[in-house]
Every structure is written in structure tokens, then in C-alpha cells.
């Protein structure tokens, strides 16, 4: 039913030509029943124009995901650009373009062509910053539907490995579940949906506006079982004697299941136009992840399940953290994951072959040469994802 509604919505965007002959096939995932797959078509043969608009790397990434160019993302434009002009859009990879420039010869990459919706003078007005769409993308390098306002109460746009996490956690109706680093709430909402909205999902995040976003998403999807709190999860364990806790901090061994989707270096994210991380910044994550892990183990009941996940590809934030956890907490054992559609864990952290088989690592770069773009979407979907890692533990 939702597949038909989704195709109808995409038809309004002229993304699908007709229900009988859709130009884009919305496909159900062959193994995960609550997933519909949408292909991204690209790179397409788009001819570059002489008139160039330069946008920031973050804006460039959004364009690759199907967004139009919003005015705040525009850094440079032709001197006499008027609304209605056809322009080529380039992404500034190193952040070196000067705001308000008329041209840029630095390291940039082409993301498609569009129509200017504003004059240059309106975009770079000094009194009030420009808002709204600055360039309407009509011929993007990667064609992807826009999901702004599309069936918000029925579907939620997510990367496939993020959906897998909810199923691996396998929440049951009536359980008390903790999502430790929950913003923006996609996994939180999925967990609540998998429980039939029966029980309670406690969502924590340190930043108030991110908590507001979780509450908005829960409200949009009519989920009543989510309780979101602005709180630092490293301090989520109470040292007080066991008592009824409505909000954080919580007594030890409070939760049936815990999801630690940890803050990480995010090196698996796609598309990613540029990475500005220093080695020092990347190395700052494992100590924080371990603090969160310690809190997670203390908050989990005996017989409970802990799922640890990241959207990065480094050994130090993934397999090495699993090896550390197994050594530090003898009460933890690795568990099989269902579904298991990614690859096994990576060598180098001292884990046994049997332990590596229980881990799930999504490494799209390993499969790029083998992915046949003409193959059916359901065949490609599991191999052409963001970089991601999942480990599942049982506390005995």
C-alpha cells in the first residue's frame, strides 16, 4: 500500500513517468520486510555550462542526495547572474572559495545544472541573509528524488545499515529500551515501530535542539512510546540506591536492550565531498566510545542485549572496540545478527575468525568494482551502502 502511495508521490515530482511504466522502480527489500529501496541514477552525462555557481561541500553533498541549492549554501556566482539563468553548480572541496566571489579556480567538483531562482544581488545582500532555494536543480549529476514532505507519517528516509541496526537489536513489545546517542531519531523511531509502540524507548542526546528533532519525528510518525531527554549518556548511570527513575540518570541494570550508536569519525558517510578531519580529531573518538560503552553495560539487565554501531570504517572505532569490550567485560558475549547482509569483521584487532563472523561490516569501497549498475536494485542494495559497523552482545 505504501509502495503504491510512494510511487504516486514520486510521479508528482515527475520522478516516475506512469504507474504502468515507472522510470524508477520502487522495490521492496528481499529480506527486510519494512524496507522500500529507491535507486539513485548517476553519474549521468551532464554537459557543463560556462556560467558557474560555487557552493560549500556540505551543500554539494546535499545536491548529490537530491536537494536543490539553498541560498545560504552559495559561495560564488557570476557577476551578472539573474533569476532564470541556467548555471552549472560546483562544490568547493577545500573551503577556499571567498564568499561573494564571481569565479573560483580552486579544487571544485561539478554536481549538475540548474536554474537560478534569485539575482546575485539578492543572494549576497548584506542587510539580511538570503533564504529559500537559490538554484533549482534541473539536470543533476546524480538523480535522486527529493523527500521533503513526502508521506512524512508513513515513511522515513534512512540508509540501509541504519535500518539493519533496529532489526539486530530485535526489540519486543513491552520492553524498556535505551537509545544512548539518539539524534536525529531515525533508529529510535524504528525501534518503537518494531515494538508495535508498546513498551518504552528512552532516547538521550546532549544537545537540546536534537532532542526537539527526535520528538518532532516521533510525533510525525504517531509514536507514543518514545521518551526523549537532553542528557549526557556517559553520566546516565545513577549511583543512588535502586529506585523508580522516570528520567536520567537511571539505576544500574534498568534496561532490557541498549543501542549505542556511538559518536564516531563518520568516515563511512556517503556522499561526502570532503573530509577535514585531522588525525588528532579521528583519534579523539575511541576514548569517548569506551566511556559510553561502560555506561551501556552498567545500564543493561543481565540477559539483556547491547548493540554497538558506528558509521565509520576505522579498525580503532570498530573491531578494536569489540576486542576491548570482550576483555574488559567478561559478562559480554558476541551474538549472531539477523539479518546479516554485510561482510564479516576486519582482521587486525586480535579477534578469532568465529568472532569476526558474528560482526557485520558494510564496506562499499570493497565492492565498487563488482557492483553491476544494471543489476536489479535488490541485488545491489546490500553492497552499495554507506560504510557502517554493527556488533551485538549478550550480557550474562
Automatic annotation (TrEMBL):
Keywords: Methyltransferase, RNA-binding, S-adenosyl-L-methionine, Transferase
PANTHER family per record: NOP2 YEAST -RELATED NOL1/NOP2/FMU SUN DOMAIN-CONTAINING (PTHR22807), TRNA (CYTOSINE(72)-C(5))-METHYLTRANSFERASE NSUN6 (PTHR22807:SF34)
Active site: 311
Protein's name according to its UniProt entry: Methyltransferase nsun6
Listed Pfam families: Methyltr_RsmB-F
Binding site for S-adenosyl-L-methionine: 181-187, 205, 261
InterPro entries cross-referenced by the UniProt entry: MeTrfase_RsmB-F_NOP2_cat, MeTrfase_RsmB-F_NOP2_dom, PUA-like_sf, PUA_sf, RCMT, RsmB/NOL1/NOP2-like_CS, SAM-dependent_MTases_sf
Organism encoding this protein: Ataeniobius toweri
Family to which this protein belongs: Belongs to the class I-like SAM-binding methyltransferase superfamily. RsmB/NOP family.
SAM-dependent MTase RsmB/NOP-type domain boundaries: 80-396
Recorded GO MF terms: methyltransferase activity
Entry keyword RNA-binding: yes
GO biological process, one term: methylation
Amino acid at each position: 500500500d505504501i509502495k503504491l502511495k510512494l510511487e504516486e508521490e514520486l510521479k508528482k515530482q515527475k520522478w516516475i513517468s506512469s504507474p504502468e511504466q515507472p522510470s524508477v522502480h520502487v522495490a521492496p527489500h528481499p529480506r527486510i520486510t519494512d524496507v522500500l529501496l529507491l535507486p539513485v541514477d548517476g553519474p549521468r552525462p551532464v554537459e557543463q555550462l560556462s556560467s558557474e555557481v560555487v557552493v560549500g561541500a556540505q551543500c554539494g553533498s546535499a545536491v548529490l542526495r537530491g536537494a536543490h541549492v539553498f541560498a545560504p549554501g552559495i559561495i560564488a556566482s557570476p557577476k551578472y547572474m539573474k533569476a532564470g539563468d541556467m548555471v552549472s553548480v560546483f562544490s568547493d572541496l577545500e573551503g577556499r572559495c571567498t564568499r561573494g566571489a564571481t569565479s573560483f579556480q580552486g579544487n571544485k567538483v561539478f554536481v549538475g545544472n540548474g536554474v537560478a531562482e534569485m539575482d546575485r544581488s539578492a543572494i549576497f545582500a548584506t542587510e539580511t541573509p538570503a533564504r529559500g532555494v537559490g538554484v533549482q536543480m534541473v539536470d543533476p549529476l546524480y538523480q535522486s528524488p527529493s523527500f521533503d514532505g513526502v508521506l512524512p507519517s508513513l515513511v522515513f528516509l534512512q540508509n540501509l545499515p541504519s535500518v539493519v541496526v533496529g532489526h539486530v537489536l530485535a526489540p519486543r513489545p513491552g520492553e524498556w529500551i535505551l537509545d544512548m546517542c539518539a539524534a536525529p531519531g531515525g533508529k529510535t523511531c524504528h525501534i518503537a515501530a518494531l515494538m508495535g509502540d508498546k513498551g518504552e524507548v528512552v532516547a538521550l542526546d546532549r544537545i537540546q535542539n536534537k532532542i526537539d528533532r527526535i520528538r518532532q519525528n516521533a510525533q510525525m510518525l504517531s509514536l507514543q512510546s518514545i521518551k526523549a531527554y537532553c542528557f549526557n549518556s556517559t553520566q546516565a548511570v545513577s549511583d543512588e540506591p535502586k529506585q523508580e527513575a522516570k528520567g536520567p540518570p537511571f539505576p544500574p541494570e534498568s534496561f532490557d536492550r541498549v543501542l549505542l550508536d556511538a559518536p564516531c569519525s563518520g568516515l563511512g558517510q556517503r556522499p561526502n565531498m570532503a573530509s577535514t578531519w585531522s588525525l588528532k580529531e579521528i583519534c579523539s573518538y575511541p576514548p569517548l566510545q569506551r566511556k559510553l560503552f561502560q555506561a551501556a553495560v552498567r545500564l543493561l539487565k543481565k540477559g539483556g542485549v547491547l548493540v554497538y554501531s558506528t558509521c565509520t570504517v576505522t579498525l580503532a572505532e570498530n573491531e578494536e572496540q569489540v576486542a576491548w569490550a570482550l576483555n574488559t567485560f567478561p559478562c559480554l558475549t558476541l551474538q549472531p545478527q539477523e539479518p546479516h547482509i554485510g561482510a564479516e569483521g576486519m582482521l587486525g584487532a586480535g579477534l578469532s575468525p568465529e568472532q569476526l563472523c558474528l560482526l557485520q561490516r558494510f564496506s562499499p569501497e570493497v565492492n565498487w568494482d563488482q557492483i553491476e549498475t544494471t543489476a536489479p536494485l535488490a541485488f545491489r542494495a546490500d553492497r552499495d551502502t554507506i560504510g557502517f559497523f554493527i556488533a551485538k552482545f549478550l550480557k550474562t
